[in-house]
Amino acid sequence: MRLIFLGPPGSGKGTQAKIIASKSSAKHISTGDILREAVAAGTDLGMKAKKFMDAGELVPDEVLLGLVQDVLSDKQTAEAFILDGFPRTIPQAEGLEEIFSKLGLKLDWAVLLDVPDQAIVDRLTARIFCADCKADYNLKTKPPKVEGVCDVCGSTRLIQRDDDKKEVIENRLKVYHETTEPIVEFYDKNSVLKRIPGDRGFDEITEDILKAVS
Ligand code: AMP
Fold first, then answer.
1. What is the pLDDT of residue 167?
2. What pLDDT does residue 56 have?
3. Which of 16, 41, 50, 93 has minimal Cβ neighbours within 10 Å of its Cβ?
4. Is residue 71 part of a domain?
5. Are 45 and 98 contacting, i.e. CB atoms less than 8 angstroms apart?
6. Cβ pair 209, 23 in contact under 8 A
7. 10-residue block means of pLDDT along the chain (214 residues)?
8. Which residue ranges have their beta carbon within 6 Å of ligand 1?
């Protein structure tokens, strides 16, 4: 299974991608997570990415294409994966086609989680994650069982991502509409797009995605 997950920031695509990956043998590849880890570790990649991420801007295409090619060059990963947060621009989508053809891979489906902007703003301002084990929560739709305590590791360091601040969210939505939405059409033309309404109950969405890609 080789999937791409598309959708605005806060559409729930990251959480759904993790669940679908855990229910299959697919590897979850989140370019946002890889970049955040690189920033935290202070690597070359992190230094290149940090200023764009802090401003809610996209990191340059060539940086992302190099990163994704490296990840997919691993044979086991290339067998089954879910790309989450990539591609986000037409040059990235075209570059990904080239990487697939170089590595002899074929995309099965591009899954789009469709969510209106207002629902996104409401959700993102409620999003937190565990600073220790990285488990993610949403104070409205998926709160921790005990307020302020991570379900997974018990840490009390539940915090908001810098790029989930209101002004950064507004910029990320603007960037999404201008730059990322055209690639929905790109995959629609290639007849691999599965459109899933994403403003519903979490489990219902997971079921619909599983049906759509099986
Ligand atoms: P995410 O967690 O997927 O929302 O990504 C967080 C941030 O990482 C984005 O706002 C971008 O700055 C950067 N980023 C992640 N994936 C990409 C991508 N495919 N292209 C450019 N920038 C990206």
1. 82
2. 79
3. 41
4. yes
5. no
6. no
7. 92 93 93 94 93 90 94 94 94 96 96 91 88 92 94 96 83 88 92 93 94 92
8. 9, 31-32, 35, 52-53, 56-59, 64, 85-88, 92, 163, 172
CATH code for the domain of 190: 3.40.50.300
pLDDT of residue 179: 85
In a domain, 15, yes or no: yes
Overall domain count for the chain: 1
Nearest to 32 by CA among 74, 85, 69: 85
How far does residue 9's CA lie from ligand 1's centre (Å)? Answer: 9
Determine the straight-line distance between the first and last CA of the chain, rounded to whole angstroms. 9
Distance 172 CA to ligand 1 centre (A): 9
* Structural domain span for residue 65: 2-115+180-213
Query: Residue 85 C-alpha to ligand 1 middle, in angstroms?
Result: 6
Which residues participate in catalysis according to the annotation?
13, 88, 127, 161, 172
CA atoms within 13 A on the CB side of 67: 27
Question: Is the residue at 65 inside a domain?
Answer: yes
Task: Please report whether residue 18 resides in a domain.
Answer: yes
